[in-house]
């Protein structure tokens, strides 16, 4: 529970949630998601692919019971970052997307990324969260820093130049002001 409300996640249902996701990923504010021109079927297909993948999982994030964000969790040894860095035991990759809204709530995106990180670190096997946002996405770099991410270096992925960043459990707790 945050000051903003309660955040929970549930496994994404690629067919049931596709229309909702389609609205989110094609919104102009989701440009860095790189699905601006996606058709509904493209979104269904992409999330069916993720649902079938052993090392990649998608979740629908809820705020006070209502859909509010998308969270993806992946094993960087097998997805996204293969060959781009040397993974350590307990590394978990993450993507998140906050639903577009015409009624923004101050502090909401920070509360979402905090809830995402809490969810990832709830697994005792998770030692470090790895992200690879587009180098030009300054807003997410600032947000990542707020929750404890430390940039390591830029990397070239097939679809973008990315800023490889890491956040350990201790860095996340320190950023939240929690003593470990």
From TrEMBL:
Positions of the Acyltransferase MbtK/IucB-like conserved domain: 10-57
Keywords annotated in UniProt: Acyltransferase, Transferase
Classification via InterPro entries: Acyl_CoA_acyltransferase, Acyltransferase_MbtK/IucB-like
Pfam families: Acetyltransf_8
Molecular functions (GO terms): acyltransferase activity
SMART domains referenced in this protein's UniProt entry, alphabetically: AlcB
Pathway entry: Siderophore biosynthesis; mycobactin biosynthesis
Function of the protein: Acyltransferase required for the direct transfer of medium- to long-chain fatty acyl moieties from a carrier protein (MbtL) on to the epsilon-amino group of lysine residue in the mycobactin core.
PANTHER family assigned: LYSINE N-ACYLTRANSFERASE C17G9.06C-RELATED (PTHR31438:SF1)
Protein name per the record: Lysine N-acyltransferase MbtK
Source organism: Streptomyces atrovirens
Organism phylogeny: Bacteria, Bacillati, Actinomycetota, Actinomycetes, Kitasatosporales
């Amino acid at each position: 529970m945050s000051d903003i409300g309660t955040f929970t996640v549930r496994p994404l249902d690629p067919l049931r949630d596709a229309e909702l996701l389609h609205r989110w990923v094609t919104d102009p504010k989701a440009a860095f998601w790189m699905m601006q021109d996606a058709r509904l079927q493209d979104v269904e297909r992409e999330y069916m692919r993720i649902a079938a993948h052993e090392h990649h999982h998608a979740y629908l994030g809820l705020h006070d019971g209502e859909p509010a964000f998308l969270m993806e969790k992946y094993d960087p040894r097998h997805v996204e970052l293969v060959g781009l860095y040397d993974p350590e035991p307990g590394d978990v990759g993450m993507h998140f997307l906050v639903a577009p809204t015409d009624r923004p709530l101050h502090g909401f995106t920070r509360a979402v990324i905090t809830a995402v990180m809490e969810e990832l670190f709830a697994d005792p096997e998770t030692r470090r969260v790895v992200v690879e946002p587009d180098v030009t996405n300054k807003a997410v770099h600032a947000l990542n820093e707020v929750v404890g991410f430390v940039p390591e270096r830029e990397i070239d992925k097939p679809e973008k130049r990315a800023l490889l960043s890491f956040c350990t459990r201790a860095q996340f707790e320190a950023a939240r002001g929690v003593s470990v």
